[in-house]
Design goal:
alpha+beta, single chain, five-stranded antiparallel sheet, 3 domains, Immunoglobulin-like
Length: about 325
């Protein structure tokens, strides 16, 4: 039983003999040691693969088809988008789904099971939509779900060519790179779709970003000739141009005609959603006005308000000044 020794017995053959080059693994003692080392290597490889699988990230490409996303109750699942996104959660699951978004990463955690529900993600810069079909189920604590990464397609670049190189029109100078549509048209269309169209149908435009509106902005000087109430709703920006959407409400019991020439202020363009306003209380008594400004927002384009108090009445006249000097 000498072959059970941990040392391999020497090979007693001449150097020229093929046995001299025989691998020691062919010997019984070395075979046992080799099997042990191979077993250890296999176990280590399996452990490495399991660790890698536990920390893997599932990559999904957005191809305009809803992405199925499964959640386990009590477990948080991470969705990487690498874009600033807004999340629209339906009211039916808002109490059972916690959503947090930061720096292009969305954290989802379900507190109770719910059926498959459509959740919309919207790019905060371009308005592009990504649809998720989210389902929450109960699962064992040891069943972990890996994070997913959603890869968005690159925006297509326009290839419109002019008649000859070096020639450009005024519209081209005022349009974003890669499109022949003026910025004012893009902004007005985007604002109208954002207010009136369903979220999923809003046409994304690269470069358009939402901008804040000054709280309590006074718009009484915008349409001074009409008995209407004007309130700023929202604003967006594209390059050096702004669009501000303002709600106009009729305060009378008669129909009013809306004419852009009646607007007071410094505007590049102005568009009414409707040309007429119905009587107060009717469904047609309200519309939206889209104002385009350049270089600044709406507040800097309005005319200054005139105070109802005449400050000049408090100034002394020259005659009164001479009389006071004589006294």
């Amino acid at each position: 039983m000498r072959w059970l020794s941990s040392q391999c017995p020497p090979v007693r053959s001449s150097p020229a003999s093929p046995a001299a080059f025989r691998d020691h693994d062919d010997l019984p003692g070395c075979a046992s040691a080799t099997c042990i080392w191979r077993l250890i290597a296999a176990v280590a490889l399996l452990a490495l693969l399991e660790c890698t699988r536990a920390h893997a990230t599932e990559v999904i490409r957005w191809q305009r088809l809803p992405i199925e996303l499964v959640l386990h109750v009590g477990q948080e699942r991470i969705v990487f988008v690498d874009r600033p996104m807004r999340v629209a959660v339906p009211s039916g699951i808002v109490e059972h789904l916690r959503v947090q978004s930061a720096d292009g990463t969305i954290y989802l955690r379900a507190s109770a099971p719910f059926e498959t529900t459509r959740v919309a993600l919207q790019d905060a810069d371009t308005g592009a939509l990504v649809l998720l079909d989210v389902t929450a189920t109960a699962a064992a604590p040891e069943e972990k779900l890996e994070p997913i990464r959603i890869v968005l397609p690159k925006s297509s670049e326009g290839t419109a060519e002019s008649g000859s190189q070096g020639e450009s029109s005024d519209n081209d100078k005022e349009s974003p790179a890669g499109t022949a549509t003026p910025s004012a048209v893009l902004l007005t269309r985007y604002a109208a779709q954002s207010l009136y169209a369903p979220l999923r149908t809003v046409e994304p435009v690269a470069g358009i970003i939402a901008t804040p509106i000054r709280t309590g902005l006074d718009l009484t000087t915008l349409l001074p000739a009409l008995p209407v109430k004007v309130t700023a709703l929202a604003a967006w920006r594209l390059q050096d141009q702004w669009v501000t959407a303002a709600r106009i409400t009729n305060l009378t019991t008669t129909w009013l005609q809306l004419d852009p020439r009646m607007l007071q202020g410094d505007f590049v363009a102005a568009t009414f959603q409707h040309r007429q306003l119905g009587p107060q209380g009717a469904s047609t008594d309200t519309t939206v006005l889209y104002l385009i400004t350049r270089g600044h927002g709406l507040a800097e384009s309005l005319l200054p308000a005139i105070s109802p108090v005449d400050a000049a009445a408090n100034l002394s006249t020259p005659a009164a000044s001479e009389a006071s000097r004589e006294k």
